[in-house]
Structures
1.
Amino acid sequence: MARNDTSYGVQNYSVPLSLYDTSERVLYAPLVNSPGFPSPLFPLSTSTYPVALFLTPSPDIAGSVFDGHPFEIKFAAKFTTTASLNVTLNLYQVTNAVLTSGITSTTYAGLVQASPSVSGLTKLVTGSATAANSTSGTITFSQQYTWDSTSKLLGINTTAVTYQKGVSISNTQSAATVASLAATDLNFIPTFTFSAAGVSVFNITEFVIDRI
């Protein structure tokens, strides 16, 4: 049987490293104009008001295409470090109410603060600290999910798989299911924790949703 894959997301995106420190931080929108940014959904970040860059099904492939069908979140990045450090990758689901509350609001501020914590934010996967890296390398992540409009339940179907520089990295499943979610609540955000300063390049080659 032929596959009917659809794919939507961000590719070849250079993470604005000046917005990061050694705390856990969400993925941020860029500080300057770049291909696809700013957009109606993602204004540019500033040092005062960083903007969370999240992945959500495109309106033209949402709805019935995802209703009851498995889909996969895939993430890949290339990085360069100038010091020996660890990189930890986590994945979260966030409700639409948080994202539409406004960049400067208390609710949204809880999302973009260090170690984000806000009602409507659910950690799906907790990564592990990796072996120290002092040269260039790669990170890849994938996991399969389903959601349906009847139960409004986001179900996690497979074990999260993460590799760094070709080495398997262990993950902890933080949530088996997330209940009472509308299609607009299918928003996903990775976070990064750098154990020390020294990341000079962090380029996301792929952060996408694949309908499989």
2.
Amino acid sequence: MNPITLTGRMRVLARSSLATLALVAASAPSHATSVIPMTVVDLLGHSDAIVAGQVQSVVDGFDARGLPYTEVTIKVSDTIRGKKAETYTFRQFGLDKPRTTADGRVYLGRPAGWPTWRKNESAIVFMYSKSKSTGFQTTVGLGQGKMSVANGVAMNSYDNATLFRDVKVKRGLLDASEQQMLDTKTGPVDAETFRKFLHRAVEGNWAKNGSISNAKH
């Protein structure tokens, strides 16, 4: 029983709006994904929508073209960017878990580096726009653009390691709690402070007008 290759399907995504990521369709079974390190400036700059809420459902399957997907529905508590709605639903490439079909084909789960989803978890998510070719959508920077929220703190799957690295903000824009947050080198940050910061950055268009920027490129 031979595992089905995902290379062709990864090529579909590489031609989509997700081409901003370094996707590596390797010959190895893991089909590893190389992820470009991103700061909060990058997350703001690339996101089509930013929402906070609780994961309501996670289901996977195959679309009409046979492409594997995981569909996630978030019950929205706060719309930071994008159209306001009670729920936000998107389909991410790849199955939630590996699966063997009735005809004996084996489909792997999500590619390495892609975010995982669990019912009832809380998160702040930065979303790319939907792919025109597949309709699929995922978080900006993959695991970097999903900030899991628990016990009042927020952190992505990379321990926020590059979230504020070399980020510059114009003097006077930040209050004391926000400045303390930006001084965080790695690890969790206060979720309410982060949400307040994001609202002000989006409403003030900080990323586009240069009020917030990456010091190094």
3.
Amino acid sequence: MSFKGRFVVDGAFAGDFMQAGNKAPFILKRTGAAQVEAPLRRTPVVKEIEGEWKGEYQIFGTPRHVTLKLANDGQNGATAEFVVVGKKVNNLPVDVVTQEGDLITVDSHQTGISYEGRFNKEANEIKGTFFQGPIELSLVLHKSK
């Protein structure tokens, strides 16, 4: 499949769409202002949030043990190791870690898994929601000693 085109005088983009030996003309025209969301960027986390956090949730009657290790990486923001252990060990690749106020977000876009929680300094916990596709589960993390 390919598109071959050029910008024309009125700001449109026109050309041919080709796929499997078939060819069809196309014209793309701007209909309004661009609506683009910038990709999330990692942010640093406060010192109290750095370290190892543990919690547990159940899905379909099977407990899952969660370990989340958060660390700051200088100017690059925070990084995370996110491990979920159930019937097997799952080391989730983490793309983005952000902190905005007391809200912590950890995203593994590759797996479709994320976690959002609010840090409570007095309770020394992060209380939030574990998302796996359409499934939302409560997950409270406590700092390891």
4.
Amino acid sequence: MTKNAQRSALYPRLVENCKTGNSPGSCYEFFTLLRKLNQDLLGSPQECLVPFGEVPEIQKALKEGVQLMIQLAWGEKPPAAGLAKFNWMETSDLVLYCRLKQLNLQIYGEENWQNLRLATYKKLPGEAQIFQDGICTNCERIKNASQVLSDEEIWVRSLFSLRCEQFL
């Protein structure tokens, strides 16, 4: 690589790697970045949390981090109820999710959290992709989870239902 070659910005690159790979290895760096953000915010004075939360990059990371974690755990189709909702995520990843949830609630409030939850429901796939001869036959008309499942069913099958008290 030459001195003049430009690297893509770190955050978008880590998000894309995580989305594309959907595995512990591909998300390691992104989750590490989110853990660092969490540490930095919690290490700041309490009265600074809301002003820091208004910084566009921080706001984006807190919202996008939670949404991506929900989507990664959900997978390509609705998971079965129970432990399937965690997919490949380990305890440390669940702790990270809970800490991001706590920060979102502290900075932006309960109403914003509920709006984020409902918006995320619309991003979750409600059915699996069907491939025939290497071509996705239903990708143009695939339904999202909120078209196939009730809000209660989505909640039960997603990380949103994780009882964070046990991790914080």
